[in-house]
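Exercise 7.
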Amino acid sequence: MKYLIVNASPVILLGKIGRLDMLKMFDRKAMVPLRVVREVNRKNTPEALALKTATSNWLEVFDDVANASIISSIIGEDVSRGEVDVIAKAQQLIHDGHDVVVVLDDLPARQGAEALSIPVTGTLGVVIHGVRSGFLTSAQGIEIVNSLLSIGARLDPLLVRKVIELISL
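Solution. The predicted structure, written as tokens, is:
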């Protein structure tokens, strides 16, 4: 089976711009840790509403993962518990023979996942995937990147420029 496991930052960013549905473009079973759901639902925000709708329809929520404390000790204290849950669940599913991609934006978490040979993408990677797979036009992809910037997403300007070049081809 194919899985997409998502952390808080991509959920928040895509939820704020009303595009959490983009996670369905991967044609994978999408999952999110309960810790992430709790974090996002602390306030009554557009992303909390988007997440509630998604978890009621297509986004699966999972709770504690058995190997989370081991993963935490391996990848370090700069990684949040939600990120640890994402990585631990991914490792568990990969160990069971599944095809898994995680969606993480924070560099320490991305590095931790990569060190464990877990395929990683981020919020901008979701946009690239959408354009490359034909779910989005190039113009729609650029519009989404601009929407992310307009809500204050902390995106590296060089990376944004590279992404726009990639999706404009």
